[in-house]
# Entry
Amino acid sequence: MGFKEIYLLGCDLGYSTYDPHMIFNEGLNPHGWKEGKNAYLLESYREDILIKSVINEIIFKILSSPIGELAGQVLDYVNELDDANRFGSHTQLQPEDLTHVNDEITKSHIAAQRIASDQGVDIYNATIGGELEVYPRVSLENVVD
# Structure
């Protein structure tokens, strides 16, 4: 198409761990707690967040059980009935670490940067904030002036 410059907007990465059981962000997160249940409860008590941490743990146990899996299937079915444009099932009630997605997206941008460079095209990141640092940063205000 003859472009010599491409400006990206809204490429901010930022995928993190999906924790649907975290009812209280102030409470401790039971997912990935390695020191054991007693240490989890003791630390919650020390930080004066015992009740919130216990509720987070109860929800975590429920969503990690077969009941949680069944609830996810029911929600998928209800969502599919409600949305004619929905192509597939993806309701996830169990914790999932999505930080690896950032790495995969970054690899794709590195490949795009190489290909564009070989074609004599410069790519710039005009996203405000964000974590993608593959391309040189430019100010959005300067681009649209």
